[in-house]
Amino acid sequence: MKPLKRYQYERYAVLCNLAYAKSFKHTRLGFDANGQRIIKNQQGKVMIRVLWSESRSEVIVVIKGSHSLFDWLLNFLAWPASCRQLNLPYRIHYGFYRLMTQLSYDSPPPQSLNVLQELESILVPLIQRGKHISITGHSSGGAIGTVLGDYLSRKYPKCIKRIVTFGQPAIGNWQFHQRYLLKSRTYRICCDLDIVTFMPPLPLVYWHVGSMLWLYNGRIYENTPTMVRLGRSLLSWLIRPFSYHLMSKYIRNKDFFDEH
């Protein structure tokens, strides 16, 4: 696996953080004026931004984490769901499956595309023009980003450049862990003692994929054993449960990536 360089980490972290802001000026970040497409969830809230410029070969897909009551409720629907309709050979968290397959707000009948289908319809012309896709997301946005990347890579081989997630919970079963195609291109970044990275709390039911980079006490640790992180996280959680899950924590730690 190629190391994640500092400037790459910074760029994805900034995009994920700004995705939650009310105002998002993509041209200030080096993207073309017409180099943005927005996908809204069924409630009309921005869920995904697709960003690109003609001068670069990389298209960046930025996926928000849970940002409404509906999203948070889906987090609790944690039984495994089949992905046969997506032609994927594994099961994933039902609530996150619903996030990906909910109807897109801007796709009314008779077309009625779901979020995944609308994303694919935006990306295919860009892929055909030789561009490569990077996917980044925070929390549940990072979790579904791994599945979206795997789905796209199976249909359009070699289209995915990398996947970078921040504070993501686990999403797939053991078959997902074994059959995921992008292990060498996926970076899962955990900040300090972020308890969300251990969810859902169902041991051996849900598994993570890719290389884990843990930002803790001013250092970077790669692929730290889960029990080591969990022990420290449980103690911290008793004091400040979700303080380390904020996207601002990941922005703070961007300087730790000098050697990556």
From TrEMBL:
Residues 60-202 form the Fungal lipase-type domain. It comes from the Bacteria. One of its GO terms (biological process) is lipid metabolic process. InterPro entries: AB_hydrolase_fold (IPR029058), Fungal_lipase-type (IPR002921), Sec_MonoDiacylglyc_Lipase (IPR051218). PANTHER family: ALPHA/BETA-HYDROLASES SUPERFAMILY PROTEIN, FUNGAL LIPASE-LIKE DOMAIN-CONTAINING PROTEIN. This is Lipase. It comes from Vibrio agarilyticus.
